[in-house]
Design goal:
Shape: globular
Radius of gyration: 16 Å
Strand content: 25-35%
Distance between the termini: 27 Å
Largest sheet: 6 strands, parallel
Structural class: alpha/beta
Number of helices: 7
Mean pLDDT: 89
Low-confidence stretches: 177-182
Number of strands: 8
Length: 182
């Protein structure tokens, strides 16, 4: 699995990664996560993409985003769109897929490898595009989670696949320590 320690970037679909870890019943320690991948490659950037709900007095994701911002990650966020459905129920809509894809294409000329943390099949075209530029793509998601959270076409297109369940012992957050929200 050693690819001669090339230059790489982490592209993290925050919602997908969070959902996958939750399905596997663990919380991620992002300090351990970045350390794990620094052991695999020279990390040029670690980008965390997420939607945020504006006008909320408190959001549980804010402390994480602040920590990430101060600790080697670039947080890319935008507000979700709020609307009411036909029954008047409050709903939210939004996606960071295009933002992540644009970021990956912009950086791909400087990279040997991309680690894509997502199981979304919509990223298959992105994977193909950066592969055509000579960039290896490793997808990090899970087949161990129930239900499976990785689209088959994305897994097949990737050069390599890492199951988040296999990383769990090395990146799991241990409760009760400093930086607990991380």
């Amino acid at each position: 699995m050693d690819h001669s320690r090339g230059t790489a970037a982490l592209f993290i679909d925050g919602d997908s990664l969070h959902s996958t870890a939750r399905a596997l019943r663990f919380d991620i320690d992002y300090r351990k996560l970045i350390s794990e991948f620094r052991g695999r490659a020279t990390i040029l950037r670690a980008l965390y993409y997420t939607m945020i709900v504006e006008n909320q007095e408190y959001s549980g994701v804010r402390p994480l985003l602040d920590w990430l911002d101060y600790n080697s990650f670039t947080v890319v966020s935008k507000p979700v769109r709020e609307f009411s459905d036909e029954r008047g129920r409050r709903k939210f809509k939004g996606s960071m897929r295009v933002d992540l894809a644009v970021g990956a294409m912009q950086l791909s000329g400087q990279l040997d490898e991309i680690f894509l943390f997502s199981g979304e099949g919509g990223f298959t075209s992105l994977v193909q595009a950066v592969q055509r530029r000579g960039v290896r793509v490793t997808v990090v998601s899970s087949v161990a989670a129930q239900p499976t959270v990785i689209a088959d076409e994305l897994r097949r297109q990737a050069d390599d696949f890492i199951d988040l369940a296999e990383l769990q012992p090395r990146i799991e957050r241990i409760s009760g320590r400093m930086g607990e929200h991380v």
